[in-house]
Amino acid sequence: MDALGLLQGKFIFKKLPNGNLDKTKVVCTLCNSEFVYCRSSSGLKYHLHAKHPLANLEDAGPCVAQGKSFCQTTMFECNRGKPISAALSSKLTNLLAQWIATSCRPISVVKDDGLELILQAATGDSSYKLPARRTIVRKIHDQHATEKTAKDEKLMEGT
């Protein structure tokens, strides 16, 4: 505990009516919520992260470090990463083709900027591009042929 209070002054001990401090209770200086304190700050840290996510200036991001007011973190800042592998790209293309075929989505969905943005955020690769329409059509045909062959073989086994 420092001179300012617990957790860089985010919590202070509750003052009793007689002016003394109650060392078993603390008050959040940000929202005045009262908590029981038993020499552990884990519950207090949880409160800070859940209710005041921007309270810690160290974690607030580049806007605060540059002296600017708080700004919203973008999806790409949260999910920075290396470009995805060829294997993952292929898997995404196959899953996308399967989703389009089984959900009766139009092939043109691969031109949707919002879907591309979602996949970029999910993969952490801001350079990810959706596959071309003809690639998806080819994948759907390949998946259909594979599925048809498997079902034809099963039917032949049954006779």
From TrEMBL:
One of its GO terms (molecular function) is DNA binding. Residues 14-53 form the BED-type domain. It comes from the Eukaryota. It holds the Pfam family zf-BED. The keyword tRNA-binding does not apply. Keywords: Metal-binding, Zinc, Zinc-finger. Transmembrane segments: none annotated. This is BED-type domain-containing protein.
